[in-house]
Specification:
It is built from seven helices and eleven strands. The chain is an alpha+beta fold.
Length: 239
């Protein structure tokens, strides 16, 4: 095998495997074919295959386990604690295709718990929406949101089956203040079903409240499988 052919095969194998991972064809946890299988498939040396897998592992796309083989890694998104951003941006930062499904959209009056969470008046108009964000066709994050229709009456006419509630709010409503609360939970029945994970899986929960100059806007609870998300904060020393 000439050096040029070896380099061409290296790039071809790399592009093939990377493409299947990024497209979601090979989801997180999928076992990559063994080196011997790839050697036969591409009619190349085992050294060429090994170099490709080593490169993919260094890029964080696969995890190589001794005696078990190589597996697609579970991507871990990072989001800034002090910023408000869209889940779509998190997914796209991983190089994965994004989608979402809306499972609940209800207009109702505020209950006692809503008053506590969003600081609205008892029985004021609310919109409750639940959706699951997908990365590469797999559940990435569960979003459970309350929107104050007293502050944002336009939300009543928004089509949240086309645009996710969070993305719509970012585009439509300027906010003046926000609060984040971060904690961990063990996935209950609802979270496990929505995220396609076993019950009691460790999850990261980010709760956010935002206000505009005219009143409270929204309370949202994002639930992530604990091994797929990290929070980052950058700050400077206090003066």
């Amino acid at each position: 095998m000439t050096k040029s052919r070896d380099e061409t095969l290296h790039q071809r194998i790399l592009n093939d495997i990377e493409g299947r991972i990024v497209s979601g064809e090979w989801p997180p946890g999928h076992r990559i074919p063994f080196e011997l299988e790839l050697t036969k498939q591409y009619d190349c040396s085992r050294m060429t295959v090994n170099k490709v897998l080593t490169q993919l592992a260094k890029a964080g796309l696969i995890e190589r386990r001794r005696k078990s083989g190589s597996f697609v890694t579970r991507p871990q998104a990072q989001s800034a604690v002090l910023e408000i951003h869209d889940i779509k941006t998190e997914v796209q930062s991983l190089g994965l295709p994004y989608a979402f499904t809306l499972s609940k959209r209800v207009e109702r009056r505020a209950k006692a718990d809503d008053v506590r969470r969003l600081e609205v008046e008892q029985a004021s108009p609310m919109l409750e929406a639940t959706c699951v964000h997908l990365a590469g066709g797999r559940p990435f994050c569960l979003e459970e949101r309350l929107i104050s229709l007293a502050t944002v009456p336009e939300a009543a006419a928004a089509d949240f089956s086309v645009i996710a509630p969070g993305a719509w709010l970012i585009e439509q409503i300027p906010w003046s203040a926000a609060e984040h609360r971060i904690h961990a939970i063990a996935a209950g029945t609802d979270e496990a079903a929505a995220l396609d994970i076993p019950r009691n899986t460790a999850c990261l929960v980010v709760e956010r409240r935002t206000w505009s100059n005219t009143g409270p806007v929204t309370h949202v609870r994002f639930t992530y499988p604990g091994d797929r998300h990290a929070l980052v904060a950058r700050f400077t020393p206090a003066s």
